[in-house]
Amino acid sequence: MAMWMRIALVATFATNMLGTVLFLPWFQHFRESNGLPGNVHPLYLWIIASWIFMFGLCYLWLGITGRTERLFLVIGGGGKLSFVIILFVNFLLGAIPLAATLGSLTDLAFAVIFAAWLWTTRSRN
């Protein structure tokens, strides 16, 4: 795997760890200050935080080892893109402020990076 992609995966791990903290139940003020709903049932927050954390660990593992797991990057990139779309639609509906949507731009950047890597390394068959 190219070094730029390995660096991007480690950086994705770092942003996922920030996302994990954002969705931990006891950080209501952190969510609210980032434009997200603060008063959410802890069950949903734990589910979201655990998924973000697990994906982050996988990004770190791929970045460190240089393994090419195309399916994981398709799913990870798709998840990041869907997060951006969900926030953008909720902004358009007036459910969240623009600040919350702008906070997802790093996810959009990583989705584009993943897509670019997948495209440039696709099989020629």
Q: What does the radius of gyration come to?
A: 15 Å
Report low-confidence residues grouped into runs of 5 or more: none
Helical residue percent?
over 70%
Helical/strand content category:
mainly alpha
Could you give the order of the helices and strands? HHHHHH
Q: Report the major sheet.
A: none
Proportion of beta-strand residues? under 5%
Mean pLDDT: 94
Distance between the termini: 20 Å
Oligomer: single chain
Our count of helices gives 6
Got a strand count? 0
Gross morphology is globular
Describe how the helices and strands are arranged.
Layout: H1 3-23, H2 28-33, H3 42-65, H4 70-92, H5 98-102, H6 105-120
Helix pairs in contact: 1-3, 1-6, 4-6
